[in-house]
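User: What would this chain look like folded?
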Amino acid sequence: MARLTQEQLAAIDNYSNDITTLKDTVTAIRKMPGYYCAGRHEKGALSLVREIYQNAIDQILEPKSPADTVWISYNEITLETIVKDNGLGFPFNDMIRMITSNHTSKNYTKKKGQYSSGLHGSGLKVVNALSTECQVISYRYDGTAMQLDLQEGYVVDKGPKSIPNKEKQQGSVVRFIPSTEVLGEINLSWEKIYHLVKDILSLTPIGSKVFFEAIDKNNKHFTETIINTDGIITKLISSTSTPLCNPIIISDDNGEFKIDTAFIYDIGAGENDVPNSENVTAFCNMCPTIAGEHIDGTIEGICRWFSQYMNNIYLANQKSKDKIKVIYSDIKNGLNIMISGFCLEPTFVGQAKEQLSVPEMSQFCKEVIMKGLDQWSKNNPQDLAKISKFFKEIAELRQKSDKEKVKIVQKYESNVFSGYPKKYKRPTSKKNNELIIVEGDSAAGSAALARDSKIQGVMPIRGKIINAFAHPYAKVFENEEVQAITRIILGPKGYHRNFEISDCQVDRIIFMTDEQLSVR
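Assistant: Here's the prediction, encoded as structure tokens.
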């Protein structure tokens, strides 16, 4: 064992002085807001709105809850957000515990099919901890109600207080103002909240309602009653400019995992007359997600089913020389997709819930999609024919583009580190070198194995090149083969006005011909 230095000994003895324990949940959350709410500023504030709105939506999804409506209001000037639902409300005696104590939730014990947006009940706790003001009201059908006020994450006046409920309302209200001291400057527009509200509402049962209200920075009021009339295809209807066919809707639920997906092909052309790549809007357990196995599995299922159908059935009897093959990127072109996944025990990367991490979900989604497309193809042969023709045209366009790219690459092809043509197999020595010119890559491979790699370099050419006697000087040196050979013989500097024979990089040139070459 190496002898410890005085500095290392001191570090060992004083190590405990460097270890800090945060006093409570509020302090921990305010210390790392980015971990708990996806970031600071507008993104963090929108995440807080999402948490409370999703709690209200959970009440609509809960079978035992009477909820069918959510009210949400937002003020751009004060940043105040209010969310109300007519669901189960908060048990009076548990209000403080549910809002301030971590790992307090009804979701720890579940039966199959009982999906929820969270597991640990941390959403409201995060919102409270990151707000300057937070107020929670719980109404009961018997005419009673309790109100709990909190500031900077901590309870005010010892606990909840009784308030009137003459209308005998049932449900809850959460009001909060995000802390700019913790989250930084916030310029969250009401439009972003509005679109989030609409997207999530489309995942609820048909007929669900949200009363939306907002005040912008100019004190202008906006109100709308949003009703879920089209379900999961709602966003596809508004975001697709030129649909190729009707939306394809596939769903399944095994109690552990659930997937609802709808997708359509938008053939609206872009700058190059090619539709953009896939446009994906995804949720898992009602949380907006940017990545995860529910997305990967769904897209894999779509791409695999259509690629197998196209290559094994639709394009199976091609007679042309250049056969078309459809690949995944062709199938993703123009794809506009909405995904709503659920896991009984969801695991997200971070409290912000932007990325799902449940490997089993990928296989489930892929199998559901492929099975669903089997059935869809039997019921919708005309739509299948339209989509197949579209894929074929996309593949043809891609293959034509790929050929043009190859030509461009070959034109400029060289080793960027040496300046020599990429196909040139260089000798290891820089003196007394010989250049062996062969016809074709196959001959180059054989010559490279038999050469003296120390002094002999090998360069393949493509058959007969331009005739130097029959063309002007400038035309000859535009030829790619001539440029490549010149670069090897004269080095990266190439031919120049003050050229001297001593500038040559090789001492001897060897033409390795095949038996069919005639010399005149």
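Residues 269-275, 516-520 have pLDDT under 50 and may be disordered. If you want, I can go into more detail on any region.
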